What we know:
- By secondary structure, the chain is mainly alpha-helical.
- The protein has helices at about 5-20, 30-50, 55-60, 65-75, 80-85, 90-95, 105-125, 130-135, 145-150, 155-165.
- It is about 70% helix and about 0% strand.
- Helix 4 packs across helix 6 (about 90-95), helix 5 (about 80-85) packs across helix 6 (about 90-95) and helix 7 (about 105-125) runs parallel beside helix 10 (about 155-165).
Amino acid sequence: MPGRSTLKRRRKLSLQDTIRDGSVPYGTKGTRAKRMKKKAVSKAFAIAKGIGIDYRVIKASASGGTKIAAIRQKFGVSQEELARVTGYSTRSIAGWEGGKPLSDSACQKLTETERLQAALSEILPPNTLANWLRTPNPALQGQTPIQVIERGESDRLWRMIFQIDANVAS
């Protein structure tokens, strides 16, 4: 049986190999979480490629505040309202607009928000979008679209968009 120092050296070497090649070794502390994260990230990239989104480009362009400010202007909403739509704090939105880097999940959420804004802009005149987001809608049981998004039910808006596009809105 190898001594403690030999085991420490082996463990140190495997961690150095990990850092060098980016793989996740089995048997190190937190490996399951690392493997799961790596698998989730690769799955997200595969999905992104499948629908034609290059997350590397989004992350690079979104690291500055101009991307967030542009989304906010297109939507015509305040930082507080964008925070409600994305599920992040107003402080985070202000920080990103100030140039703080975005996390991967924030990039994904902002991309989803931007796609929703683009789809809504095809249906509504751009200058009425902000007002529509704040107005209670009978098709949404009297809720505002911002409230629907905030509750995590943006699929209801997507359904509405697809019905209007297909001319089958009820």
